């Protein structure tokens, strides 16, 4: 996902420093997210992305705690397992308080923060552990630049709105900005108890503490930008409400536990990241893509995230489908790359989107979101048997099919291609949307219109899914036609995309219908969709797990033998967890579950070296070196929804798990477990109206599947 600097790639993310050098702490709820340093401060360091953001705008760009002008010393910093609370332990530095020298271990500072309904709640607890009474001076310095997220990413604007005069109250400050879009955005900081003095950039305190005495100070940062109901409760009330929300979202997932504590930590962090990234919309819940650059609705990302966790939480897919159906394009708008029936690529709030300085306010420049929408609809039905919901979005599915046949295949050659229509939209419109991601074997870039290999697979799978749903809707004629179209596409695809000289599927066909004979992970998606010939699936799978692709930490996006291979690039040699999950799912689809083990093992081992066991958006594709960690990608989002969800699909692929709610059937086909997992227990897995508890146990050359509890007429089938 590469949405911004006016160079060759218009939406390149500018980096003059990196995110990996200094570990940051991320909080998110709804339309609000915050990035702090490990001290809990907001500073202009690294990529300059720290801050509190709301609806695409940074409402707080500076927040620094200082004792006599000196930064406190860090003892520890972490996000709790539920991803809702940042906890920071600090102690005072050596400093002078008047004529008194205060030792650096006199004051313990416990700093906690969380976000709820457009507000960041913070509590400071200072405790005097010295043997003497102390009078402690400290300040909280703050500022708000109201930068659009695209400005933070590197986009330069010709002009901005204006900062309004700060409004001070005895225990509060209001910082406001009048945007060029006519909207006034206000950051309000409330202090309780109030400081001794407050200015437009600093709150100054002097607290007197007896030995072992503590004092608590609460700071609330409110992001105010439109007329809407705001939470007005206390710190404690807000925290309870936030916790209730997390519990409700978590209740939608089945329980998973293994005998490997490190894998359990990966599962727990992945689920917590998904819960944090899941926002409530008027159409249901939706997993926002990633923090900081993509904290909004993305069509492709939301669909793939929902597919990855579908077996564990089908409710997420329902929310995604509802939102995408509601935002489906209804008319031609070239500047938005919109055409009737097309599924959205992304939506954005913020001043630059409102003014049209970027096209992403409501943008449709992805070629794959539309067939993926149909795929998710079919998968959701098989998973849940929810006929009523499918009937409610059937017209949207038909509109998506019409887009595939008319606008997607504009030249009528049977393949879906893309070419940018917007003057400042995305040049490449597949999931690898960097400008240099589609190329020929000599490294020259492919010219549009471009037919990506995986997109043809998505269309094939979409038509098969739509055929099944058409039968469900009683339209047998349409079902037969769609099935025939899928079969024809599969035959033509295997004739024109297969390259004997590299024994692999071409990355794409260019505008002259010439194949890009490049070995890329995109071919693994062709396995995921089922469009690949069965006799070729093993050849592709073997190559994807060979040294040119497999680094030891996962499968690279392109083989290291290709001209544009670069392990530090965004799309041409890096490792993406979600990409690996789809590759593993494709390999398992052809019965090669034992191959999927290697991919799960690489991703799991990489997670062991990640901060908080969190899988980032991507990491570098360098070969695994003994006793060393994977090389982080400097600008990667973390958390990223489809990366967090990847562990679910990876585990599903190894287990060969499939659910057919209509037939009340739970299947395990050629189940395997990696060497680091001896047992996997799944609790309260829904199959239609039934629920089941399952245990998988690995033996030397076998995996046993045992039904621990069964509530309802569910049939469990094991194929070995």
Offer a few descriptive terms.
single chain; 720 residues; alpha+beta; Beta-galactosidase, Chain A, domain 5; eight-stranded antiparallel sheet; four-stranded antiparallel sheet; 16 helices; 34 strands; globular; disordered N terminus
3D architecture notes:
- The protein is of the alpha+beta class and 720 residues long.
- Among the domains are: 24-230, Beta-galactosidase, Chain A, domain 5 (Distorted Sandwich); 282-433, no CATH class.
- The chain is built from 16 helices and 34 strands.
- Strands 6-7-10-11-18-15-14-13 form an 8-stranded antiparallel beta sheet, covered by helices on one side.
- The longest helix is centred in the C-terminal third of the chain and has 21 residues, at 476-496.
Which CATH C-level class of the domain at 24-230 is it? Mainly Beta
Helical content class: 25-40%
CATH superfamily label of the domain at 24-230: Glycoside hydrolase, family 65, N-terminal domain
pLDDT < 50 runs, ≥5 residues: 1-7, 14-21
Oligomer: single chain
- Find the count of extended strands (DSSP E, 2+ residues): 34
SS content category: alpha+beta
CATH topology of the domain at 24-230: Beta-galactosidase, Chain A, domain 5
């Amino acid at each position: 996902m590469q949405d911004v600097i006016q160079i060759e790639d218009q939406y390149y993310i500018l980096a003059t420093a990196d995110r990996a050098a200094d570990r940051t702490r991320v909080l998110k709820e709804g339309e609000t997210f915050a990035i702090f340093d490990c001290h809990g401060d907001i500073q202009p360091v690294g990529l300059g992305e720290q801050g509190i953001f709301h609806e695409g705008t940074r409402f707080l760009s500076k927040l620094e705690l200082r004792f006599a002008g000196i930064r406190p010393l860090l003892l520890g910093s972490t996000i709790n397992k539920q991803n809702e609370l940042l906890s920071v332990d600090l102690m005072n530095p050596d400093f002078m308080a008047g004529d008194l020298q205060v030792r650096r271990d006199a004051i313990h500072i416990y700093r906690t923060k969380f976000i709820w309904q457009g507000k960041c709640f913070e509590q400071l607890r200072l405790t005097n552990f010295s043997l003497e009474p102390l009078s402690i001076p400290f300040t909280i310095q703050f500022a708000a630049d109201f930068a659009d997220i695209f400005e933070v990413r590197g986009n330069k604007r010709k002009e901005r709105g204006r900062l309004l005069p700060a409004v001070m109250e005895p225990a509060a400050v209001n910082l406001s900005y009048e945007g060029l879009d006519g909207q006034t955005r206000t950051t309000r900081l409330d202090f309780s108890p109030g400081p001794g003095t407050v200015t437009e950039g600093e709150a100054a305190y002097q607290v007197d503490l007896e030995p072992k005495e503590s004092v608590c100070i609460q700071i609330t940062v409110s992001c105010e930008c439109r007329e809407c109901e705001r939470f007005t409760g206390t710190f404690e009330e807000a925290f309870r409400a936030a916790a209730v929300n997390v519990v409700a979202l978590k209740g939608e997932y089945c329980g998973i536990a293994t005998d490997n504590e490190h894998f359990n930590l990966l599962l727990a962090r992945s689920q917590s990241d998904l819960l944090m990234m899941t926002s409530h919309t008027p159409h249901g819940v939706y997993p926002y893509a990633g923090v900081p650059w993509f904290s909004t609705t993305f069509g492709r990302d939301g669909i793939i995230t929902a597919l990855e966790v579908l077996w564990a939480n089908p409710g997420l897919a329902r929310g995604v489908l509802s939102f995408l159906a509601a935002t489906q394009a209804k008319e031609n708008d070239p500047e938005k790359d919109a055409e009737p029936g097309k599924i959205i690529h992304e939506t954005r709030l913020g001043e630059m989107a409102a003014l049209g300085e970027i096209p992403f306010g409501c943008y449709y420049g992805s070629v794959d979101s539309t067939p993926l929408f149909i795929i998710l609809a079919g998968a959701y039905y098989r998973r849940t048997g929810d006929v009523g919901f499918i009937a409610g979005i059937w017209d949207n599915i038909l509109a998506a099919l019409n887009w595939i046949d008319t606008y997607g295949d504009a030249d009528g050659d049977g393949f879906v291609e893309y070419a940018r229509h917007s003057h400042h939209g995305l040049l490449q419109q597949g999931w690898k949307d960097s400008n240099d991601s589609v190329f020929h074997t000599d490294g020259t870039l492919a010219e549009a219109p471009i037919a990506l290999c995986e997109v043809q697979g998505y269309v094939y799978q979409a038509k098969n899914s739509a055929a099944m749903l058409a039968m469900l809707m009683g339209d047998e004629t349409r079902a037969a036609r769609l099935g025939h179209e899928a079969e024809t596409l599969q035959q033509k695809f295997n004739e024109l995309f297969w390259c004997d000289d590299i024994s692999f599927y071409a990355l794409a066909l260019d505008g002259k219908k010439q194949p890009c004979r490049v070995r890329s992970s995109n071919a693994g998606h062709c396995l995921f969709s089922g469009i690949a010939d069965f006799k070729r699936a093993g050849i592709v799978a073997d190559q994807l797990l060979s040294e040119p692709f497999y680094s030891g930490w996962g499968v690279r996006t392109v083989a290291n033998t290709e001209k544009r291979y670069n392990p530090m690039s965004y799309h041409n040699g890096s490792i993406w967890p979600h990409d690996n999950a789809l590759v593993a799912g494709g390999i398992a689809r052809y019965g090669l579950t034992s191959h999927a083990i290697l991919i799960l093992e690489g991703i799991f081992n990489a997670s062991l070296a990640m901060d908080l066991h969190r899988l980032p958006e991507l990491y570098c594709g360098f070969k695994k070196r003994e006793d060393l960690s994977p090389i982080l990608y400097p600008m990667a989002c973390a958390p990223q929804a489809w990366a967090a969800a990847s562990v679910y699909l990876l585990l599903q692929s190894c287990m060969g798990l499939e659910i057919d709610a209509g037939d009340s059937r739970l299947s395990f086909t050629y189940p395997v477990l990696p060497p680091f997992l001896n047992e996997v227990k799944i609790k309260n897995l829904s199959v239609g109206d039934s629920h089941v508890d399952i245990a998988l146990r690995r033996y030397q050359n076998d995996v046993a599947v045992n039904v621990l509890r069964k509530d309802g007429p569910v049939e469990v089938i094991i194929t070995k």
